[in-house]
Amino acid sequence: MIRRLAWRVATLTEIRQETPTARTLVFDVPGWPGHLPGQHVDVKLTAGDGYSAQRSYSVANGDDGERVELTVQLVGDGEVSPYLTEVLEVGDQIELRGPVGGWFVWRPHSSPPVLLIGGGSGIVPLMAMIRSRGKSDTPFRLLYSLRDPGQLFYARELEKVTAGIEVAYLYTRTAPPDAGRAAGRIRAADLVAYGWPPDTAPDVFVCGPTGFVEATADLLIELGHDPAKIKTERFGPTGG
Amino acid sequence: MGIISRAFQGRPRDHDENLPPGQYLVHDFPVLSAGPTPRVPLDRWEFSIDTAEGEVHRWSWQEFQALPQETPTVDLHCVTKWSKFGTGWKGVSLDVLMEDVESAAEYALAYSYGGYTTNLPLEDLLDGKAWIVHEYDGEELAPAHGGPARLLVPHLYLWKSAKWIKGIRLLNEDWPGFWETAGYHNYGDPWREQRYQGD
User: Fold this and answer.
1) Alpha-carbon span B100 to A233, nearest angstrom
2) On the CB side of A2, how many CA atoms lie within 13 Å of its CA?
3) Which of A51, A115, B23, B146 has CA 20 to 30 A from B191's CA?
4) Structure confidence by residue, pLDDT tens digits, B20-56
């Protein structure tokens, strides 16, 4: 008999504001079994009358004992994300269970080059992979599509990434003057310039809103990438 | 009941008895798939049922379209927590497709263009519980939602309703599919909240 994934009590220990509408929540989760980069958790909030709401969030940190970090983007008409981004305070408790998902994960012992392509808050599970790379010699390339510089998550950390990880920012609406690329949605030329060529057979992870993921996966296949090497995770327009 | 989240109120209560535990209602139609969307030209599309005894029943797009069509209206429940009520589809009941299929098998594995698989007991495909659908909301089914045709098994979580369906293999033994080998529940009944292994 397989054991059920238990709901665990998570205590908020730290908050890092990423943008005006997104923040990273650092939880201490006693009994946490550990996770692989790319996996997610279910979060459950319970109101005083017993009503509860559940949502799924990607884990943002690498496996780190009983520490679980989530980066949550406020969704305007959401039910759970406004609470997580605006109400929850250090010391507060929520419930979560996981880790969930054995597909959209990078296993640090795998050897091909890694191509990460994130749109908006789709960067979160990809950041867990970057943070898990450690001293591995697997070369990483990240293409990070975002509306404008004000939407950037993990700014200081991405600035400092070490040798072996290359980061390209693809601004869709407003690019800073030194961007070297006109603002616009991801194009084949971006994948050629900043990605890996198909003949290097990279492991590709694409995460973001549905339209972004559909468009990017189609471009990758047109360029000759093997569909079987492309793992995707889509957010609907509906979110938490 | 778990711990109370300080100052959490949540949305106004719907008290909707059609909403399974842990789900919330949406009005759009989110897309979830594990890889790129396959594109299947209709002149190369076919759907098969292979029996455990080695028989193969096969339909081209024209043959499939010529079968009696039904227009089920059903509620959808995705394991990622959203539910959508009253979705309208057009397609062929598995009862029609299975009419001339003889097999002692008890299990089925649905497989798709693009390589996706999902397993379910054969009885969950029969008696008006499942369809191969090719229209959604009066329009041909978009590739992102599983077009040209997908399985529709609305009484189970939506990952069981394989997009881009290519065929169904009847088996004497249960053979876990894509998500079922990646931590998700083998059966996936939303009313028993069978999301993950062990639920």
Assistant:
1) 39
2) 13
3) B146
4) 999 998 888 877 788 999 999 999 999 999 998 899 9
Q: Touching check for A1 and chain B: CB below 8 Å?
A: yes
Cross-chain residue pair A5–B199, CB shorter than 8 Å: yes
d(CA A42, CA A96): 5
Question: Among A4, A214, A230, whose Cβ lies nearest the Cβ of B198?
Answer: A4
Whether B31 has its CB under 8 Å from any CB of chain A: the answer is yes
So what's the ipTM on this one? 0.86
Across the interface, do B9 and A234 touch by the CB < 8 Å criterion? no
Give residue B123's identity as a one-letter amino acid code: E
Q: Which residues does chain A have within 8 Å of residue B182's beta carbon, measured at their own beta carbons?
A: 101-103
Map out the domains of chain A with their CATH numbers.
8-100 (2.40.30.10), 114-235 (3.40.50.80)
The total of other beta-carbon atoms located within 10 Å of residue A164's CB is 14
Cis-peptide into A33, omega within 30 deg: no
CATH of region B46-192:
3.90.420.10
With the C-alpha atoms ordered A67, A71, A74, A80, is the resulting torsion angle positive or negative?
A: negative
Mind listing the pLDDT tens digit for each residue in A59-84? 999 999 999 999 999 988 889 999 99
B12 touches chain A (CB under 8 A): no
Average pLDDT over residues B79-93: 95
